[in-house]
Amino acid sequence: MxxxxxxxxxxPYLYEVDLMRIIFISGVLLNxxxxxxxxxxxxxxxxxxxxxxxxxxxxxxxGFMFMTGLVLFLNYYNKENSWLSFWKKRYxxxxxxxxAWNILLLLFTEGLAGTLFSxxxxxxxxxxxxxxxxxxxxxxxxxxxxxxxLFPLLVKLFKRFPKEHNVILLISFMLQLSLLFxxxxxLPVVDTSSWWFIFRSYGMNFFVxxxxxxxxxxxxxxxxxxxxxxxxxxx
Length: 235
Prior knowledge:
The chain is mainly α. The protein has 10 helices and 2 strands.
């Protein structure tokens, strides 16, 4: 029996998402290329300029989070969902890739370093990588796992307050500003050594990126309204 009953009309194909994918993937590639060049350069004005361009490319993770919210809400918001089926589907598909890539990349790097067959080294490193998402730039997948867990609650929030979506977006924005202030000015002078990993390494925490996901969700829910207004303005 199909546990996910459609209640909406056929979804429009968003060519904007394809464009965003191209922009964000290009940004990620440029980010890593400039990192390699910057690390190989001596201190100079050229290196400073390159580092400035490198920092400007860090918009990609926020962009991907916006796109994730957009696509997930577009696919699931107007459905009667079985969230157990959702979790099973998402965690099995993404989780398998996460585990596989950690194993393959760790085999490669440990093999190059000549430490692959060191006693217990490989499995200790693999366990750390899987539990913390801090190897091989796979932190985004780690954040996505948290997102999948919270996603049903976010859908319920938007459905519970259908006339307060602007308020939800505003609260999310204010929360984001507060988090940025705390991370920038308060956290550096706090001893976080005893904190749980997900709070100590705030870059691995979904809540640091929540505004971008909420904005994507808001865009997906109100996409038809925006496009309709655009058509009315043009006409």
